[in-house]
């Protein structure tokens, strides 16, 4: 689940960078060059390490912990129900020789229904976790995209790209364009104040 969440988030960060670029007020007429503002060079394009962002963004850590906890709880519930079902099957197999044909048929029907209920429980739990994970990813995407939009505008950047070793769409970028630490610090500060 963590790998899927990471891949979804990496994809969302890539999309967020393009949203930031597309939402700039001024249309681009030519490739932008570095500009100087108050003695400081402003790069038009910067990047964020998505893996570092995810590992250091408190909101993502909270989401991951929450989803792992829910997944473990669902697994414990499923295991407990599965073990109880297996005990019932073993008990039936021990008593089957001494049961009448009607009792065997009735017990087999009851066990078949229980098996269907167990399968439905498993499917519903998996579906609920997947839906909640998708909703949390959407919230994560919105938080990061909104923050990057404001960040880029404030800093004068025209585009914020994402970089990840697991999904290398950017093969090389000068380290001077890396704004990951600054973005993570800003996101965590915003998240901390939102929690209060």
UniProtKB/TrEMBL annotation:
Keywords: Coiled coil, Signal. It holds the Pfam family OmpH. Residues 1-23 form the signal peptide. Residues 104-131 form a coiled coil. PROSITE patterns: PROKAR_LIPOPROTEIN. It comes from the Bacteria. InterPro entries: Chaperone_Skp, Skp_dom_sf. The keyword Signal applies. PANTHER family: CHAPERONE PROTEIN SKP. Belongs to the Skp family. This is OmpH family outer membrane protein. It comes from Paradesertivirga mongoliensis.
């Amino acid at each position: 689940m963590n790998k899927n969440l990471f891949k979804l988030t990496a994809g969302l960060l890539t999309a967020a960078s393009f949203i930031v670029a597309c939402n700039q007020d001024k249309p681009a007429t030519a490739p932008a060059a570095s500009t100087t503002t108050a003695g400081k060079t402003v790069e038009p394009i910067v990047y964020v390490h998505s893996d570092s962002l995810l590992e250091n963004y408190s909101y993502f850590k909270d989401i991951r912990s929450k989803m792992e906890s829910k997944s473990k709880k669902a697994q414990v519930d499923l295991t407990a129900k599965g073990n109880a079902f297996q005990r019932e099957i073993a008990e039936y197999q021990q008593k089957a020789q001494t049961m009448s044909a009607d009792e065997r048929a009735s017990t087999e029907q009851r066990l078949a229904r229980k098996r269907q209920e167990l399968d439905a429980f498993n499917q519903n739990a998996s579906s609920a976790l997947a839906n909640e994970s998708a909703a949390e990813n959407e919230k994560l995407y919105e938080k990061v995209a909104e923050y990057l939009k404001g960040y880029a505008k404030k800093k004068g950047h025209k585009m914020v790209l994402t970089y990840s070793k697991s999904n290398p769409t950017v093969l090389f970028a000068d380290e001077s364009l890396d704004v990951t630490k600054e973005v993570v610090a800003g996101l965590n500060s915003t998240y901390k104040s939102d929690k209060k």
